[in-house]
Amino acid sequence: MININLLPWRTLREKERQREFVFLLSVAIVLCIFICLIIHTFIARQLSKQLAVNDYFSQQIAVVDLQIAEVTVIKQQKNDLLRRLEIIQALETSRVLLVSMFHNFANILPNGIYITSIKKDHNLITVTGKARSNQQVSQLMQNIDTSPSFSDPVLTEIQDNTNNSQTTSSILDEVYSQGFELEMNETAPYNTASPSPASTSSSSSVPATQPASAASPTNTNRKITG
């Protein structure tokens, strides 16, 4: 007996192929979604790690910036201390130079002269005083000329107080009747590295028998007055 299949086999085969295509397409879509999820997860983790690294570097940069600021402050404090130390050293040097100047001037001061003031501005020294006669003033000028510590004496003022009839004049003024003022230069090199001090003064009457170096100067500009 012969069996005859009257079903549309072509249609069934086409439907079977369609089912296979849909199945394969679904599998491919699922695989693509799964791969995309894996890639997304990997990128998210890498991004999170990179953000964490960036945060760490930002914190470290902030710490370094703070340390740099502290170093800058320390350097500024160091420079301030160095400037103060230079000023102190300059003042100590100027004190030594001033004491040496007073000592040298006392050595050339002849008897019969009464010093009322000494002003020093860098190397220029102005001396004001009184003498018994013009002879002592001339002797002082000669001593300055021959001294290795001073030079270029210039007599800027001379005043004769012999005929002064003021009753308030002291015995000392009567004995030292010749007032004078002179200028001279100090030949010892002036410390140009030290800051230029402001002109200051202090007072003390110094006769010839009491050396002017007995005073205790503390500045490069000094005045000794009676």
Brief write-up:
The protein is α+β, with helices and mostly antiparallel strands. It contains 3 helices and 5 strands; from the N terminus they run H-E-E-H-E-H-E-E.
Which properties best describe this structure?
226 residues; alpha+beta; Gyrase A, domain 2; five-stranded antiparallel beta sheet; 3 helices
Structure description:
The chain is an alpha+beta fold. It has a domain at 92-214: Gyrase A, domain 2. The protein has helices at residues 9-108, 134-146, 171-175; strands at residues 113-121, 124-131, 150-160, 178-186, 206-207. Strands 3-4-2-1-5 form a five-stranded antiparallel beta sheet, covered by helices on one side. The longest helix is centred in the first third of the chain and has 100 residues, at 9-108. The model is unreliable at 190-226 (pLDDT under 50).
